[in-house]
Amino acid sequence: MKHALRDRRPTWSAITRRNLLGGALAATLAASVLTACDGDDKVTHWYGSWSASPQDYNEPFPAPPPPSFFNNQTIRQVLRTSIGGDQVRVRFSNVFGTSPLEIAGARIALSAGGSSIEPASDTELRFNGNASATIPAGGELWSDAAELRVGAEEELAVSLFLATETAVSTVHALGLRTHYVAAGNALSTETLSGAETRSSYYFISGVDVRSSARANVVVAFGDSITDGAGTTPDTNRRWPDYLSRRLRADGSAGTVSVLNAGISGGRILTDVIGPSGVNRFERDVLGQTGVTHVIFLLGINDIGFASFVPEQEVTVEQMTAGTQSMIDKAKARGVKVLLGTLLPWKGANAGGVPYYSEAGEAKRQAYNAWVRANTTVDGVIDFDQALRDPADPLALLPAYDSGDHLHPSDEGAEALANAVDIRLLEVRP
User: Fold this and answer.
1) Is residue 3 part of a domain?
2) Burial environment of residue 14 by CB neighbours within 10 A (0 to 12, 13 to 18, 19 or more)
3) Residues 187 and 218 in one domain
């Protein structure tokens, strides 16, 4: 059965077309519902507060982990908001599905840790007034607004009931959170005792909050370094998490939400291990509700992946052209762009295969020189300089190295967040 599902997988060209269409629809939706008035004629706004970029569970590399299906099961997924609000809505995703996604029920609540929820906060999610929904293949769907007040840096649990056999299709592979799967309809069960655990996100890609405050929404667009590989699971220590907390603690920039749009293994130009940056930028960045800024940290896999697949080698000129095309799209939408340099990676390996090479290092240096000289962006963040070892500038500082010489540790992720000039993210009248 599993192999039959893979045989029906769409081609990458089909996925690319579908991604672009889905992104355009998401951007239209985000623009159309950004502001509203409540009963007191007070202007309110919807803002993205959490995101996880969709991936195809059935792509050929890497080999997908189990399960390949859910059937009569409840999935409880835990996430953390960036900013808070008085209402919340959830985006459910079937972007990579090859058949309709049947949602039999969904609820949201404040997390009480582990698989537990705060019962008093347990709130039904409805879809155009209905308790269930069908999302067509290639589509995404926002729930209706739910009356749940959530705070900044709040732990939420989204519970999803799949009553019939449902092929796993749309995921975010590196969730770095423990999620729970229980038999039957356990949507409102306080604690899912004996539940199976998972670490990927399934069928959810975003959470918005409604607020009367004026806020900026910053999207961190990148690969595994942004996705949090190398940091401690279940601790929210990805660099966008640190940036969100830093902005809130400092307060000088105003209310700023930070969304994570990293995909481990992702590249600027080439699909597989998630859609390429140029193919997902419309949906994963410009489609976020209220987006005002994007921070780029993407490209090291375009260089290093040639160690695995030499025929996918790309030139620096191709990398810069791809990045510039996304910069131009953002600027055309009024989104401010902060462009990051690629981190030191001397000695990096991936799965035992050498990733670093002298030829690759020459490309990194050339790409970083282009970044530093780019006059079309609103700011440059020199992540390279912030994390390099002064005694060996081609390598990560040992304290910032998770051990593979490619991905930052928890301390390295915090150093990335600290390298961002938060004045560039300031909410302005």
Assistant:
1) no
2) exposed
3) no
| H helical segments located in 170-284 | 224-227, 239-250, 277-281
Check pLDDT > 80 for residue 368: yes
260 within 8 A of 301, measured Cβ to Cβ: no
Report the pLDDT averaged over residues 140-150: 98
Question: Do the Cβ atoms of 210 and 388 come closer than 8 Å?
Answer: no
Token pair, residue 91, equals 């985006």
Segment 164-212, tens digit of pLDDT:
999 999 999 999 999 999 999 999 999 999 999 999 999 999 999 999 9
Q: Which of 162, 182, 207 is the last residue of a domain?
A: 207
pLDDT at 40: 53
Between CA 315 and CA 301 the distance in angstroms is 12
Q: How many angstroms separate the CA atoms of 363 and 381, rounded? A: 18
Last residue in a domain, options 158, 188, 207? 207
| Alpha carbons 215 and 9: distance in angstroms, whole number | 40
Strand partners, 56: 170
303 close to 364: Cβ distance less than 8 angstroms: yes
Phi–psi pair at 133, nearest 5 degrees:
-155, 155
Nearest-angstrom CA–CA distance, 284 and 216: 16
Identify the pLDDT of residue 354: 84
Answer yes or no: do 186 and 230 share one domain.
Answer: no
pTM: 0.91
DSSP-derived secondary structure letter, 111? E
Structure tokens at 160: 């999803």
Report CA-CA distances (Å) from 380 to 49, 135, 370, 419.
24, 40, 11, 10
Q: Which tens digit of pLDDT belongs to each residue from 2-48?
A: 322 223 233 333 334 344 344 434 443 443 345 555 555 568 899 99
We report the CATH number of the domain holding residue 245 as 3.40.50.1110
**Would 245 be classed as within a structural domain?**
yes
- What's the one-letter identity of residue 168? V
**Do residue 275 and residue 327 come from a single domain?**
yes
Residues spanned by the domain of 124: 49-207
Single out the residue of 266, 367, 278 nearest to residue 325, CA to CA.
278
Shared-domain flag, residues 318 and 174 = no
- Does the structure show a pLDDT above 90 at 405? yes
Please provide the DSSP assignment of 287-315 as one string.
TSTTEEEEEEE--HHHHHGGGT-GGG---
Hey, which bits of 67-214 come out as E strands? 69-70, 73-80, 87-93, 101-103, 105-113, 116-117, 123-124, 133-135, 140-142, 155-162, 166-167, 170-172, 179-183, 196-198, 201-202, 204-211
User: Are 236 and 182 found together in one domain?
Assistant: no
Q: Are residues 220 and 323 located together in one domain of the fold?
A: yes
